[in-house]
Amino acid sequence: MLSPVVIASPVLTIAAHWTNQSYNAAVNYCNRNASQPVPASLLAQGYVGAVGASVSIGLAATALTTKAAKLGPGAALAIRATLPFLACAVSGVLNIGLMRRSELETGVTVFDHEGEARGQSIKAAEKGLKECAAARVLWNIPITVFPALIMSRLEKKTFLVSNPRVRMAVEMGVIGVCLFLGVVPALAAFPQIESMNADDMEEQFQNLKDSNGQKVEKFVFNKGL
Q1: Which DSSP letter does residue 225 get?
Q2: What was the pLDDT predicted at 124?
Q3: Which of 58, 124, 139, 166 allows an S-S link to 182, with CB 3.0 to 4.6 Å?
Q4: Beta strands 193-197 and 108-111: pairing type?
């Protein structure tokens, strides 16, 4: 998706975004909060919506990038460094929202400090999905912005200009390093097992007692990844 060859081609853009969002849809489904079953029809709708949105955003970014190339190297670099980020971040947020939107309808199971399941909370689901969406925005910054800025300097080197294959290898290496340095910290920023104060949840959770008769002040839940 970051390669200039892909960005310049609508066909390759469609193929790249379709592949990427299909993979993302599978990741989002496998790493969801699975306390409630999800109908196959809902998953199919989410997949079509996520892929359709990503391809549309990707094609729009490709069209703008092509036009920006005529405005000079500065404008081209600015577009190349920002549009892929916007396309990937927005698509990632839409993907997780569409693939896991059933959690906003049924809620997720929350547990007290004794490990007892105390019910389904939509507010906990909302918090979990917001954090998952934020992680996707965070990890796309080093993956999509930094490589363009780094390569704008490296690609002027004589040995890369005269060796297209070496240039491609270097660019893939830069993207790979940024990928590994970006995803892990972004995921770590939001723990998978999240907590929420009872006062911030639905009324049904605000006056529950534990086995000792003490008020439960906080609940935990699996927000997914």
Answers
A1: -
A2: 93
A3: 139
A4: unpaired
